[in-house]
Amino acid sequence: MHGYLNNSQIDYIFFHLFFSIDVEIYQIIKSRFIFSECRKGNDTDIFSDINGKIIFNLSSSDIKIDDVFFINELPILYPINAQRKFYSLINGNLVFHHDILKSAFYLLSGYQEYNSDKQDKLGRFPYSESIQQELGIIYKPVVNYYFDIVLGGIEEFCHKNAIPFHRETLFDEWKVMLTHDVDRVKTYSLNEIAYKSKQFMGISPSQHSKIQQFRLLIKYVNGFLTRRWNNPHWDFNILRECEEKYGYKSVFFFLPKELPRHDASYKFSEARIKHLFHKLDHEVCEIGLHGPVRSFNDSRSMSKAFNELSRYSPQTPVGIRQHRLLYMHPETLKIQKKAGLEYDTTLGFAAHEGFRNSYCLPFKPYDFENDRMIDIWEIPLIAMDTTLFHYRKLDAAEAENIFNRLIGEIKKFNGIFTFLWHNGFGTDHPDKNIPGFYQRALTLFFRQKALSILGNKLIKRLEGI
Questions:
Q1: Which three-class secondary structure state does DSSP give residue 377?
Q2: Collapsing DSSP states into helix, strand and coil, what is residue 238?
Q3: Cβ(422)–Cβ(179) under 8 Å?
Q4: CA-to-CA distance for 392 and 464, rounded, in angstroms?
Q5: Which of 218, 346, 386, 460 has its CA 20 to 30 A from that of 2?
Q6: Nearest Cα to 173, choosing from 438, 440, 452, 364?
């Protein structure tokens, strides 16, 4: 990012930083702000003629990875001087030595993927090209830490200047948002037989040995021909029983039937799907939209999918996750908003679990083309079954260790752990411990005292603050 943050971009950061702070207190604090274009010299000398102000040093530089250094394991993306601390109280002023606002904006807004032409084979911004990978910060919600540091400095400043100030948080406890993308509802089908054939012939990737691939192909052909009732992908009762054991609810994102072999093979109008809709509604779960492949950059596809789900579901969808995590910044979000959706939960890296925008709470991404915040909430996706056991090829014990690490970070900020588990996941996985990992994860969440939350309930809470 070249140049100083402009007023709209600074306001964007303060919107999230002070989201839960009383408006009157914020106005008092805001009146003390000074934004200082970076100048060479000692901060003590530069601000010797100012008193009682909160001074944010601003940088006009681009990120230079070689210049980035760390303070307490947090990266300083836009260093201004040689100070190895975030702030000091100098001559009655609170002085932030480096451009922490621009650092937060860069990570939270989605600038790195807006400004990049790097794509994986599905056209997604890849983890391998991210600053999270380059700096090794994927497991740390860095923006939450930045905000905590800024609030800590302001709290110390207010105490010394007898200004009323107290912190508030969105939640008193950390939350888990359990989600399921319903890509398919039938295990044994012609499409799956074709895919298993491609795997056996080496055209498509597989985690199985050649003999295992052959046995799976025979299994799928037999399952299709005999029309047996065994259907591992219709495991909705099992998922709900696992969740209800801990008092948890979940969000089910349903995929329309649009592009053959890319989107769903079922229809919302089917009796079994309509029955499932009403069952989930009765159990106070949430029904959301799983945006079909074309919808991430096609407004007509998005509107059609939204209207179709609204027609057959007892709930008007509030939230969405894009199929295959397809996403284009900021077009996808604007298309979602235009269709009538209020939140998205697509933003997690397909190839790695963790914090894609370095944040563990809901936020609003930024529209760089119009230089303003986009009026739709993003609930970050923290971990996905396919990421853990397909892309990363972890075993269940390794995945649990990573969950403990992520939970430890999220608990510090009473954040949200959004977890995606597909119905029927792991049916044919060579590691027989993988299908049971969902139960293992729920037990872990419960032991760590996570309370569950749904996206539609979260949006009502956000709107009420």
A1: strand
A2: helix
A3: no
A4: 39
A5: 346
A6: 452
